[in-house]
Hints:
A: seven-stranded mixed sheet; B: four-stranded antiparallel sheet
Amino acid sequence: DARVTQTPRHKVTEMGQEVTMRCQPILGHNTVFWYRQTMMQGLELLAYFRNRAPLDDSGMPKDRFSAEMPDATLATLKIQPSEPRDSAVYFCASGSGADTEAFFGQGTRLTVV
Amino acid sequence: AQTVTQSQPEMSVQEAETVTLSCTYDTSESNYYLFWYKQPPSRQMILVIRQEAYKQQNATENRFSVNFQKAAKSFSLKISDSQLGDTAMYFCAFMKPAIQGAQKLVFGQGTRLTINP
C-alpha cells in the first residue's frame, strides 16, 4: 500500500528550538511538495521539488525555514528558530510529475509554545 | 496567479440527501487540472475527483460528480445519497500542467460539510 509517510505526527516545542519534519514520498514519485495548513491562511505551498531540485520555495520564509531532499526517499523541512506563529499542520505530498494529482501524508501537527 | 474561491464556509444536510459544493477559480490558462480533496477529522487529505480542463465530459466517481463550466470558471462537486462518512472539509484545487511551470496545487479555503443522521 503506497503512501506518503511523515514523521513525527505531532511535535510540541519551545520557541527558539529547531524543528525538523521528515517525509518519505511514494516510491517512484519525483515531485515533492510541502504545504502548511492554518485556520487563517488555509493550505499554503511552502516548497516544491522535482527530481530533488527545488523549483519553487517562494512561499517559505527564508530566514528561518529550509527544505531539502538529501535523497529520493527523504525530504526534510526545518525551522530554526521556531516561533509560536509557526504552529500549524505541515503536509508533505508527492506526485509522479506526469500531471497527476498529489498524494498527501497525514501531516505533522506542530505546536510552538 | 491563479486563485480558487469556495464561497460556502459551511454546509449541513441530512443523510441520503444530495449536496452541491461550489468552487470558482481564476486563471488565464487554457489547459489545467481541477481537483476536489476531502479532509476528514483524521486530517488526511484524500483525493475525491479530478477533472482535466480539455475534457468536456464531467468527471464522476461513484456518488461524486462534478459540474465543470469552463467558460464560467466554475467547478462544483455534487455528492449524491450522502453518508455520515462524507462529513469532512472539502477543498477545491487548481493545478497547471507541469510543462507550464511549477506543478503546484492552489487550494480554496474549504467548505466544512456535515452530514446529519
